[in-house]
């Protein structure tokens, strides 16, 4: 469901609940229902750097083809960095991986991840943050979002590589991971 909020269309979740005297950040009350807008704290990466608002973050992450750099930790607490293709949808990040990959083993032990998507060329622009990662169990959702990731980076689903990747998702050897960000830290030197 979408609603026009502060001049921008936002995806919202409808939650049944009573009227409240105090309203949490992001609540829009209508009758007997209130709507929770997905909210993620947003910070500027550096005090003097221009940052981004939610709509700019949404646009940047949805359009960028730069791989996401994923930070996980292993059982010993040692960090690992993994570049991954991703898809961004409604304040969530999705990526695919072999089910037995190091990053997946790490996520099973520690669901907290760090991520960054940023441009290498000047003027630098980027979004980084911390989030919680889960493995998507819904096979239909995993296939649909995996196809979006593959098409984003390969252009379509017709190449032999794309077909092979889709087949691995269908067979369950490739999985989809969902990251729910706790915060975004941004910079945009285009401003």
Short description:
By secondary structure, the protein is of the alpha+beta class. The chain has 2 domains: 2-36, no CATH class; 41-188, Roll (Pnp Oxidase, Chain A).
Q: Helices and strands, in N-to-C order?
A: EEEEEEHEEEEHEEHHE
Cα shape: globular
* Overall average residue pLDDT: 85
Give the helix tally. Answer: 4
Beta-strand residue percentage: 35-45%
Helix content: 10-25%
CATH domain class name of the largest domain: Mainly Beta
Task: Please tell me how large the radius of gyration is.
Answer: 18 Å
Q: At CATH's second level, what is the architecture of the largest domain?
A: Roll
Classification by helices and strands = alpha+beta
N-to-C terminal Cα separation, in Å?
Answer: 32 Å
Could you say how many structural domains there are in total? 2
Largest sheet: 8 strands, mixed
- Low-pLDDT parts are 1-35
Question: Total strand count, please?
Answer: 13
> What is the CATH topology of the largest domain?
Pnp Oxidase, Chain A
How would you name the CATH homologous superfamily of the largest domain? Electron Transport, Fmn-binding Protein, Chain A
């Amino acid at each position: 469901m979408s609603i026009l909020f502060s001049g921008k269309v936002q995806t919202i979740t409808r939650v049944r609940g009573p009227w409240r005297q105090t309203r949490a950040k992001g609540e829009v009350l209508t009758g007997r229902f209130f709507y929770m807008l997905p909210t993620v704290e947003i910070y500027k990466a550096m005090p003097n750097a221009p940052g981004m608002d939610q709509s700019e973050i949404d646009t940047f992450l949805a359009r960028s083809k730069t791989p996401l750099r994923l930070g996980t930790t292993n059982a010993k607490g040692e960090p690992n960095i993994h570049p991954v293709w991703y898809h961004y949808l409604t304040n969530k990040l999705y990526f695919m991986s072999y089910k037995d990959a190091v990053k997946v083993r790490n996520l099973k032990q520690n669901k907290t991840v760090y991520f960054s998507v940023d441009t290498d060329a000047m003027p630098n622009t980027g979004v980084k943050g911390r989030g919680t990662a889960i493995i998507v169990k819904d096979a239909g959702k995993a296939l649909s979002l995996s196809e979006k990731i593959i098409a984003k980076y390969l252009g379509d689903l017709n190449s032999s590589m794309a077909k092979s990747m889709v087949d691995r998702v269908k067979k369950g050897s490739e999985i989809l991971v969902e990251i729910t960000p706790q915060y975004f830290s941004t910079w945009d030197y285009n401003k």
